[in-house]
Design brief:
With 234 residues, the protein is an alpha/beta fold. It is built from seven helices and seven strands, in the order E-H-E-H-E-H-E-H-E-H-E-H-E-H. It has helices spanning 16-24, 41-46, 62-75, 95-100, 124-139, 172-182, 208-233; strands at 3-9, 30-35, 52-56, 80-83, 108-114, 153-156, 186-192.
C-alpha cells in the first residue's frame, strides 16, 4: 500500500493551515487542491513546504477537486488516497483507523463514520443532511452506511477512478458510494472523531435550496439507472 493525503480546499483560509500541518505529521505525500479560492487560502498553502499544491482557476466543485487530487496521486504511484476536509472537523490521527481497515489487502472504500454529531456546535443541517443522504444512498442501490456525507475517507485509487462518477460537486461523495456497491467493491465504515467549530468561526458552503436541487437530481438519476438495470435483468 502506498497512500497519499488529498485535501480539497475552497475559501478555508482560517483553518487550512492547521489542517495541512496536522496531515504532514502522518509522513504521507500530501496533495492540496485549491478549487478557485478567493480568500487568503492560496497565499497560506503557498507558504507551507512539504506538499504538492494544485490549483483550479475557477471553482469547479469538491468532486472535481478530488478527481484532480486523485489523478496527481496516481501519477506519483500512490494506490490509495485519504481525503480530509479543509474545515478542521477531522483529526488527522484518525487516518490510522482508515488504513487499518484494509490491512488484510482488501481493496475497499473506507468511510470515516463521524462520532459525536449531536454535539453543541454541530448544525442541524449537518445532522438532517446525513440522515437524508443515508436513506437515498440506500434507495439508489448503494451500501447501508451511517455517514454517507463524511469527507474523511480512504479510496482505492485506480478502482475509484474507474467508477465513472458524473457528479463534480458535493454529490460526488454520495454517487461514488452507489457506484462502488454496483461494481462489487466493499464499503467499510470505521468510527472517527469530529470537531465542529463555533458558528462564528465555521466556514460552510452549504446552500440549502441549490444543494437540495443538486442532491435531488443526482439521486433521481441514480434511482432511474437502478430501475433500468433491473428491467434489463428480467
Amino acid at each position: 500500500m502506498r497512500a497519499a493525503i488529498v485535501i480539497p480546499v475552497y475559501n478555508h483560509g482560517r483553518q487550512v493551515g492547521e489542517v495541512i500541518r496536522q496531515t504532514l505529521t502522518l509522513g504521507l505525500p500530501v496533495f492540496v487542491v485549491d478549487d478557485g479560492s478567493t480568500d487568503s487560502t492560496r497565499e497560506i498553502i503557498g507558504n507551507i513546504s512539504g506538499l504538492t499544491t494544485l490549483y483550479h482557476t475557477e471553482n469547479q466543485g469538491k468532486g472535481a477537486a478530488l478527481v484532480t487530487g486523485f489523478t496527481a496521486a496516481l501519477q506519483e504511484n500512490c494506490n490509495y488516497a485519504i481525503t480530509i476536509d479543509a474545515d478542521g472537523q477531522h483529526k488527522a490521527e484518525d487516518a490510522a483507523a482508515l488504513l487499518q481497515a484494509v490491512q488484510d489487502d482488501r481493496r475497499a472504500l473506507v468511510v470515516g463514520n463521524r462520532q459525536g454529531m449531536a454535539g453543541e456546535n454541530v448544525p442541524w443541517t449537518s445532522r438532517f443532511g446525513r440522515g437524508f443522504s443515508n436513506f437515498w444512498v440506500r434507495a439508489s442501490g448503494g451500501p447501508k452506511v451511517m455517514d454517507s456525507q463524511s469527507g474523511f475517507r480512504l479510496y482505492p485509487l485506480p478502482e475509484a477512478m474507474q467508477l465513472e462518477v458524473r457528479a463534480r460537486r458535493y454529490q460526488f461523495e454520495v454517487e461514488i458510494l452507489v457506484k462502488a456497491r454496483q461494481q462489487g467493491m466493499d464499503v467499510i465504515e470505521v468510527p472517527v472523531q469530529v470537531v465542529y467549530q463555533p458558528k462564528t468561526l465555521r466556514v460552510s458552503h452549504f446552500r440549502p435550496w441549490l444543494d437540495f436541487m443538486r442532491n435531488s437530481n443526482t439521486f433521481s438519476r441514480l434511482i432511474f439507472s437502478r430501475l433500468i438495470r433491473g428491467l434489463f435483468r428480467l
